[in-house]
Specification:
Length: about 325
């Protein structure tokens, strides 16, 4: 039995598809299943049981002998959520409970951290665990993820295998429900389809042209391959970056989305909203040497490959993974 929290969400539901495709169907899905839009992500998936996230911690002791692996992907991922009590409850305290249960019952654990922990990148984007206490996230969401990473590293009792993954800008199918928190590629596709053009944020930083702000965009199918690798690897515990390892510009992203839709790019620029301007990241790029050092060498999709697959095979026909 494999546990997946956040199972109805973007990455969680894609992980179910990946495991199903590899022959795993004894899956226990954990989430708040009250959102009908999210539940569409579970159509045609094979699994054993759904457990409400409020009941999950109490459920574990009764079924721990049958659990083989825990993927804790679920979290409150809204970077505009400023109620720290919500983030402390769902991202920090809940993850501590999952961790402690895995320690108590000898269960291997992979959990989702975030590149939001890096803030403006003052300490770089190196997944050196010595630097984690020095990081300065830009919002309470990033704080909640970094606070757990720090807590995990401080624990004397740890799961026999555990890994925290700092997801960078993940994009791909099954993010239809995410509204404003969906990937830039998702929003670009929809804006182009509705208006025939795309408006990007201007640069407000000397030396960086409009649209030349860069992010590490990583295709969800690559994320799934890493998760699957770690499920079988079960050694070399620690916190790892999970990005493509290659920063690309927003202009590239928009142009490639137009190309995948068979259209000529029409890109213009608007001022970055003042309320986020001073916290806007102009560059993120995951260093991926640490993951490679434990034996993961599968090439990641280029942005060209990922956007082409996503737009042509999922967004245009409205398909799910």
């Amino acid at each position: 039995m494999i546990i997946i929290t956040g199972a109805a969400g973007f990455i969680g539901s894609c992980l179910i598809h990946k495991l199903n495709s590899e022959g795993y169907t004894d899956l226990v899905l954990v989430d708040d299943f009250s959102d009908a839009a999210k539940n569409k992500n579970l159509d045609n998936k094979k699994f054993t049981l759904k457990v409400d996230r409020e009941d999950f911690i109490a459920w574990i002791p009764q079924h721990q002998l049958h659990i083989q692996f825990v993927f804790h992907i679920g979290a409150r991922t809204d970077t505009t959520e400023f109620d720290r009590s919500v983030l402390d409850k769902l991202n920090l305290d809940y993850t501590k409970e999952v961790w402690n249960a895995c320690v108590e019952f000898g269960l291997p654990l992979v959990y989702a951290s975030s590149a939001a922990t890096y803030g403006l990148g003052e300490e770089g984007y190196d997944d050196d665990e010595q630097k984690i206490p020095l990081l300065k996230p830009l919002n309470p969401y990033g704080d909640s993820k970094n606070d757990f990473d720090i807590w995990a590293l401080q624990q004397e009792k740890k799961p026999y295998f555990w890994a925290g993954l700092k997801f960078f800008n993940v994009y791909g199918p099954n993010e239809y429900h995410k509204a404003r928190m969906a990937s830039v590629i998702f929003h670009t596709f929809n804006r182009i389809r509705e208006t025939g053009e795309m408006k990007l944020f201007q640069s407000h930083k000397p030396g960086i042209a409009d649209g030349e702000q860069q992010r590490d965009f990583v295709y969800v199918k690559d994320v799934l391959d890493v998760l699957y690798f770690l499920m079988h690897h079960r050694k070399d515990c620690g916190i790892y970056n999970l990005g493509s390892g290659k920063a690309r510009t927003f202009r590239d992203l928009a142009s490639l989305t137009f190309n995948a839709m068979g259209l000529e790019p029409r890109i213009s620029f608007i001022p970055t909203p003042e309320d986020i301007r001073d916290k806007y990241q102009y560059f993120t790029e995951a260093t991926m040497d640490k993951l490679a050092s434990i034996g993961y060498h599968k090439p990641f999709h280029t942005l060209e490959e990922g956007i082409s697959d996503y737009v042509k095979n999922y967004l245009t026909p409205g398909r799910y993974l």
